[in-house]
Amino acid sequence: MADRPAQLIACHYCDLLQREIPLNPGCTASCSRCGAVLYRNATDSIDRTLAYTLAAAVLFAVANTFPIFSIEVQGDRSAINLYGAVASLWDQEMKSIALLVLITAIVMPAVELISMTYLLLPLKFRRVPPGCALFMRTLRYVEPWGMVEVFMLGVLVSLVKLTSSFKVIPGIALWSFGALTLLLAAVASSFSARDVWARLEQGNKERGEP
Ligand SMILES: [Zn+2]
After folding, report:
1. How many CA atoms lie less than 13 Å away from 145 in the CB half-sphere?
2. How many angstroms does the Cα of residue 8 sit away from the middle of ligand 1?
3. 0.85 exceeded by the pTM?
4. Which pLDDT score is estimated for 170?
5. According to the CATH classification, is domain 44-206 in 1.20.140?
6. Which of 17-21, 76-80, 87-91 has the lowest mean pLDDT?
7. Which of 51, 166, 170, 191 has the greatest number of beta carbons closer than 10 A?
8. CATH 1.20.140 domain locations along the chain
C-alpha cells in the first residue's frame, strides 16, 4: 500500500473525508472524528484468504460427496449425503425447504469458493483476472446467503433427535461440514476487498491500463 498515491476515504459512519496514509503491517487507521475503523493493513490477506479458500474447497467437495450420517435399523444401514437429503425433502413435498437447503448449503458456498479462487489465485501471481469487477460484486451478493453453519446446526439437532430411536453413525461429511464452517468464517474474516482492489489497480498499472 505504501506505493499508492494518497487518496481520500470517507468514514462509513460519519462521512468525514480523510486522506489515506500508509500503514505498517498489522496496523489500523481510525476515523479522526468518530474513531470507527477505516482500513487495516492486514499482512498477506490475499495469500491467507486464498489458503483458507483452497482448504475450504477440498472440504466442500468431501462434504458433498460422502455420507453425512448413516442410520442402522435392525442390522440394515442406510447412509444419506447432502444431495440425498435435498432429494428426499423434495420427494416429501417439502420443496421450499429442499430449495433453501440447496441454495444456502450447496449453490451459494460453491459460487463463493469459485469466485474467491478465480479472483485470488491470479492476483497471487500478480495477474489480473478478466471480469474481476463482476466477481467482486458477485461475492458481495453471495456472502450473506451462504449458511453452512445454519445447516450444520439443523443436522446436529436432527441427529440428537434420531439417536433416541435409531443407531446413528456420523459420516465423514459431518466432520467436513464442521471444519468447513470454521474455514468459511476464516475466509470471511481474512478477506479484504480493499487489498484486492489495490492489487487489481497495481496490476492494471503494470500492464499500462488506467
Ligand atoms: Zn467517522
Report:
1. 19
2. 13
3. no
4. 85
5. yes
6. 76-80
7. 191
8. 44-206
pLDDT grade for 152, boundaries at 50, 70 and 90: confident
SS3 at position 16: coil
Residues in the chain, overall count: 210
Distance from Cα 140 to the centre of ligand 1, integer Å:
23
Name the H helices within the chain. 45-65, 82-91, 95-101, 108-124, 132-142, 148-162, 172-190, 193-206
Distance (Å) from CA 9 to ligand 1 centroid: 10
What pLDDT score does 6 carry? 63
Give the contacts of 129 (CB within 8 A, at least 6 positions apart): 118, 119, 122, 123, 135
Burial state string for 35-46 with b = 16 or more CB within 10 A and e = fewer than 16: eeebbbbbeebb
CA 16 to ligand 1 centroid distance, Å? 6
Q: How far is the CA of 18 from the centre of ligand 1 (A)?
A: 9
